[in-house]
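To the structural biology subgroup,

Please find below the input and predicted structure for protein adenylyltransferase, which we are adding to the shared reference set this quarter. The sequence is reproduced verbatim from the submission form. If anyone notices a discrepancy with their own records, reply to this email rather than editing the shared folder directly, so we keep one authoritative version.
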Amino acid sequence: MKEIIGIFGSYARGEEKEGSDIDVLVRFGEGASLFELVGLGDYLEDLFGISVDVVSERALHPMMKDDVLRELVPV
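Predicted structure (tokenized):
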């Protein structure tokens, strides 16, 4: 099971430029695999037509977590 929590980064701040990617924060259930993470990224890239960086909530570095959550735009 996966849940897209929201977007963060330049698109969330309205500061995207040509070549910017979309940063997507996701929450995966127990037992989720790397293949699911990569598959979701591929799916979203096909959907939006631009590069997508999928980040698992569990993989967020503690020093970045507060900044990411502060600018997060829920979807």
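Summary notes: The chain is about 40% helix and 30% strand. The helical segments are 10-13, 34-48, 62-71.

Regards,
Lab coordination
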